Amino acid sequence: MASRCCAMRAAALRGLVLLSALITLPGTAAELDIELTNPPAVGPLYVLLFEDADTFGSLRTAQYRERFDAGQPIRLSVPEGDYAVLLFVDENGNGELDRNFIGIPREPIALSNNYRPKGPPNFNRARLTLSDDAPTQQTLSLSQILGDTGQILGDTGQWGVGIGAVGQTSPYRGSTKQPGTVIPAIVYIGEKLQWTGPRIRYTLAGSTDWRLALQGDLRLGAYEEQDSPFLAGLGDRDTTLMLGLAWTRELPAGIDFTVSASQDLFDRSGGQQAELSLSRGFQWGNWRLSPFVGLNWLSADLADYEFGVPTEAATAERPAYQPSSAVNPEAGVTFFYEITQGWQMVGNIGVEQLDDELTDSPIVDEERLMKGFVSLTYTF
User: Fold this and answer.
1) What phi and psi values does residue 342 have, to the nearest 5 degrees?
2) Spatial distance between the Cα atoms of 340 and 118, rounded to a whole number of angstroms
């Protein structure tokens, strides 16, 4: 009986040893060797490995991280799998990749496959499949994302040019025309200045998680009086530029909170607008999608300019109407699609629910409007 128990214990022990060996098989580890064509003379280097597109798209929360001294061979041993690799030179020795507010690295970096993005990085273009068959070799070059490709207002950044279109649906009674226009798509992404289509921002103050910026937005002309018989005699509502301030704060989980206020620069309406929004970016294949929700406030002057009917223009079918200020909820998505490393498609689309102050106007017969922007650009 005792010998049988000993045999059973021995068999159980052999089973545990075999299971442990299977769990720790050396074949589950893969090696990655990195050689730099322009290694730094001093300063530690960090290698970060990302396993999914979302974390790589924001360059946050790497799954693996290892430090190397300058001149030290760079070899990593990690579990087999697909990774995007980021290497950076820690110039100030704080152990972190220093970035500006919009997430652009300030320190020299290299990405796997020598991928150099012109926007949010694409996991698919940097993807490496690491296995235990043989070490994976990568020869990379360090570079500054915001290099010497161009300058404006003393700010170094990346230039892009192309063509775009901005438009919206019409909420007006009997209107057969949807406001919209084709515009040159000028893109500039710099340390302080960002110019993308109908919006331009220049940072006045800030840090890695907040900024205060001067902001300009193109506001499309609401209508031309010839668009509908119900608008006849009211005159045209022309396109203008809204200029003001925008404050953005990065909240936990990568959520951006923005509040802005602006004035009609050309005084066509004499009005103001303010916006409050929450957005969060996600990487999906070659797409970077940023859903957003918000509230848009229109001053009484701006609401009256676009939705009011002055007494002198009133008719039996179009009584006089003067709205007060209005608040419109809005939701939508901003998108970035990397066609190649140089060509990108950028835009947004949203739906805005009109306040009762606006839908009660005798010239309005829609409760909401769609609006958006899209551009095709080449970034140098």
Assistant:
1) -105, -35
2) 9
